[in-house]
Specification:
Blueprint (H helix, E strand, L loop, with lengths): L4 H8 L7 E2 L11 H10 L12 H11 L6 E4 L2 H12 L3 E5 L4 H7 L5 E5 L12 E5 L11 H10 L5 E5 L12 H6 L3 E6 L12 E4 L2 H10 L6 H11 L2 H25 L2 E3 L6 E6 L3 H10 L2 E2 L1 E4 L7 E6 L3 H20 L6
Parallel strand pairs: 1-11, 3-4, 3-5, 5-6, 6-7
Antiparallel strand pairs: 2-8, 7-8, 9-10, 10-13, 12-13
Helix pairs in contact: 2-9, 3-9, 4-5, 10-12, 11-12
Length: 346
Amino acid sequence: MEDDIYSFARERGISERKAVDVSSGICPCGPSGKVRAAIRKAIRDIRFPPEPSLSRLRRTVSSKLGAAGNNVFFANSVEELLRLISGVFRPQKVTALGPVLDVHSSALTSSGSEIECARWGDGGETGSGGLVFVSQPNRISGRLVDLDRMDRMFDSGGHDNLVVVDESLIEFTGDPGSCERAFREERVIVLRSTANFYGLPGLGVAYAISSPGIIGRLKEKKSCEVNTLAAAAARAALIDKTYRETARKYVAEERKLLCRSIERIGGFRCFDSDSNVFLIQASCPAEEISSILARKGFLIRPWKTGDAPGGVFLRMSVMEHEKNVKFLRVLKQAAGVERTSGGSCQ
């Protein structure tokens, strides 16, 4: 199945606006009115080159996180930052704790490193390789790693290992994250983005938070290249407290409603989540369910694992209420097709 919504829509002869990426992980609330207003205002400045130092955005991030300006490095996406980190530090081995997105795995190994996926509790958090990677919360399951496990990972990594924490979804949870640790420890990098929580995948900004030494090494390899509109959108988004509170409440309530409705269909199990993404397990083949949904314009990505019964899950994210309702209707139809065709979705 296609990995992006544009290929998916072209294959089916529909507009990408009519196609729905069920696995996107993008907040259904954004961008906010304040962000839209900031973008309209910034259009007047696109006749000038982007500000090289991003000083206004840097001040906003520094103020929000309690960091100094030399603790932050900007880029266009988390994937771009991971490729840069891989190229600068060139780890011999990458240990990924928990499931990891394919695009992240590809970026982490872009300099020729080998990647090993380890489960929490099996000794993987001792960090025997050159780089330890974890998503907090996980980008596939949506679950937060508890504080004790995170502390053990930081403490057991060893001084020769770099610890990279992807916090792209952290703002859905209200958890403070690991920025404080990144400020004071030379070997910790925290990655954040405005793309997911603030609903800006087409105009997102990603940033790395770390010690001045690590940020300095990243700057030696690459300059900050963020366009004027993305920088303006990021500034407006990061200071919008009302949006953060509203979005968290909406996503939490809609996720509960969505999971409850999915399980009522029968033949599906929803797994707990702390963010806007979660996993579904179907008693009938997940690939067949996703294929039926695709014919109705819903792109949903299966995720395979050898650790769980059935081995295949469907990756979900909370959408706008109207799309959630339509998805539930189509999912119920898909489950019915599987039952009548001799499947075991019951």
